[in-house]
Amino acid sequence: MLLSLYALIGAVETGLLFALVALGSYLTFRVLDFPDLTVEGSFPLGAAVSAKLMISGVDPWTASLAGGVAGYLSGLATAFLNVKLRILHILAGILTAIALYSVNLRIMDRPNIGLINMETVYSLVERLGVPSLYAPLVLLLVVVLVCKGLLDLFLATGFGLAMRAAGANPRMAAANGVRVNRMIILGLAIANGLTGLAGALFAQMLGAADVSMGIGVIVVALAAVIGGTALMPSRAVPMLTLACVLGSVLYRLALAVALNTPAIGLTASDVNVVTAVLVAIALCAPGRKFATTRRLGLVRR
Amino acid sequence: MLKFLPGAAALLVACAASAQAETTKSVAMIIMSDTPQLIEVRDGVLKGLANHGLVEGKNLKVDFKSAQGNFGTAQQIVRQFVGDHPDVIVPITTPTSQATVAATKEIPIVFTTVTDPLAAKLVSSLKHPGGNATGIADVVPTERQLEVVKQIVPNLKRLGLVYDPSLDNARSTVESVKALAPKMGFTAVESPAMGLNNVPSAGQALAGKVEAIFVPNDTTVYAAFESLVKIAQDTKTPLFTAERRSVQRGAVATVGYDFFQMGLKTADIVFEVLNGTKPGDIDVVFMKDLPNSLGLYVNKASAEKMGVTLPPDLLSKAAHVF
Fold it and tell me: Looking at beta carbons, which residues of chain A come within 8 Å of B65?
């Protein structure tokens, strides 16, 4: 009654894919304390750049990486608006996301680029002998674990510690010689780089890059971050990033079950409000605990 | 998860076995967003299948889902469909069709309300598309629509275009209007509206600058259509569209498809596929080539409020006067 194998794998794949966005949102939202809405634009930006490159004959790997690089640059744009022009963080992200809408239309030259029957990163993985049903799963698992691992390593370096300090207590960090603005710039760039990469990989899975693809991305990412870390509270960064990945997958599994079980009475049309309620609950209840946890985590180190 | 997989596989087999035991057919349909036009297509498909003797709840199982504009959700719905293995999947509009075609090479797909299936890469050719997908292309009869505009507004020099540039369908229509403009003796004035909230201002921006406004097949603008009607009445600028329902809602006239009819035609193809014809052997159907698929729809009251009178010979040809 629950799920077909195909729906199950589809849910895990989609969950892993959006886990990349969740990792980025963990970095901005949790580490830097910067609610970054750029992702609604950088996700389709990554898709647009990679799709345009792919139909121009560039290989899927390079195209996907280029999507990530484009996302990285869009993060820089938001950071510039916030740090240099002193625009409120949430507005800076909204501005970049809105601007990216036009940029994406320019890049693609139309609202939608079809990628069906083209060589994608998934078909290249299939060629290595992975059954086609599992190819996206295997690839995304590797990509997510690598990104998670690199993020963990980065946050454990002196530079990473400085970034966490900059988010936890900007004044104290600045007093100790941390260049807070530089941390915000780099953090946003990395987060949106991950999001751009996710967009590129999603377009190849979906069979198209579409300018409307960014709708709802931020809420899904936040649901993963907040839900995951609420289910697996921890002080250690590697556990928290793992919680984000699992949160993203669990969100998709829950959605798949809801979609597949008419008995619950939920339809896709209810998903948005259910997500918003979940995020709101998780945000209001243990919010204070998180802040102290993070500070404690720093003190311990 | 390893523990879960064999169980899920067994479940799949069980589902397949139970589906074979009964004689009901199953159709899965997905729309990207709950737009009235698209709901009409769905209703048309269901009515069409009922005309062929397949009645929902009796001998037809219908799984209809909307992705609420969210691409991640759309992707998941499609995956779920593929896992459920219905007899036919009917994706409505371009992005859901692309997601479906990308997700399965086995399950027959009959797409509908897609402007350009070739550009969207849904099929590799329009005749004998091969593969597992075919469907209906609703290339807009733009020239016919513009002829009607010219008939009602003979002094047309500048035609305003209100559209959402993020919509593939709308953009391609705008391109063809611009291509037709010199031949038909007017210039096109674009007024893009990015998203629902910008529709009123896009309409206002045209006030006094054009003799008439034309809205292509654009779900964004149609969602905020009443605001545009009000502006057109206030500024006495006749408003034309590419779709029938909007004439009922206050546009002056259009030559257009009936989305319900489009659903009926889609059902014919679905029925063919359910009877065993491979989608790859069925040519993509162009709505405009079908007899009686086009009708002239006019709104007399709106015409008066927007300061134009409808020529009697045009009125006599109308399929419906609102």
Answer: 259, 267-268
Tell me whether A58 touches chain B (CB under 8 Å): no
Residue B218 domain flag: yes
Instruction: Give the orientation angle of helix A237-260 with respect to helix A5-25, to 10 degrees.
Output: 140
Is residue B158 located within the same domain as residue B303?
A: yes
CATH of the domain at B272: 3.40.50.2300
Give A7→chain B minimum CA distance, Å.
4
Contacts of B11 in chain A (CB under 8 A): 1-5
Q: What is the pLDDT of residue A264?
A: 64
Report residue A293's pLDDT band, with 50, 70 and 90 as the boundaries: very low
Instruction: Give alpha helix (H) positions in B153-210.
Output: 168-184, 199-204
Nearest to B83 among A4, A205, A206 (CB): A4
Is A268 an 8 Å CB contact of chain B? yes
**pLDDT above 70 as % of chain B:** 93
What mean pLDDT comes out for the span A131-158? Answer: 95
Q: Which of A102, A202, A259 is opposite residue B80, by nearest beta carbon?
A: A259
Question: Residue A285 has what pLDDT?
Answer: 54
Residue B63's SS3 state is: strand
Eight-state DSSP code of residue B240: E
For the segment B187-207, the average pLDDT, to the nearest whole number, is 91
Report chain A's mean pLDDT, rounded to a whole number.
89
The first and second tokens of residue A166, run together, are 């900059």
* Domains: count for chain B: 2
Tell me: do B193 and B244 sit in the same domain.
yes
Answer yes or no: do B230 and B316 share one domain.
yes
Res A269: pLDDT = 64
- A51 close to B (CB below 8 A): no
Shortest Cα distance from B292 to chain A (angstroms)? 31
What ipTM was estimated for this complex? 0.83
Q: Are B98 and A117 an interchain contact pair (Cβ–Cβ within 8 Å)?
A: no
pLDDT given at position B284: 97
Kindly state whether residue B18 falls inside one of the protein's structural domains. no
- Rounded to the nearest angstrom, the minimum Cα separation between B76 and chain A is 6
Of A206, A220, A256, the CB nearest to B80: A256
Measure CB to CB from residue B12 to each of A4, A105, A114 and give the nearest one: A4
pTM of the complete model beyond 0.90: no
Q: Among partner residues B5, B73, B99, which is closest to A271 by beta-carbon distance?
A: B73
Same structural domain, B49 and B71: yes
A202: nearest CA in chain B?
Answer: B72
Give the best-scoring range by mean pLDDT among A247-256, B104-113, B172-181.
Answer: B104-113
Beta bridge partners of B298: B253, B321
**More confidently predicted of A163 and B243:** A163
What is the rounded CA–CA span in Å between residue A50 and residue B283? 32
Domain match, B172 and B127 both: no
**Do B217 and B266 lie in a common domain?**
no
Closest by CA position to A20, among listed A163, A213, A149: A149
Tell me the pLDDT tens digit for each residue of A209-239. 999 999 889 989 998 998 899 889 898 999 9
Longest dimension (CA), chain B: 74
Distance CA B217, CA A78 (A): 34
Closest residue in chain A to residue B164, using alpha carbons only: A111
**Which residue reads 């990033």 in tokens?**
A241
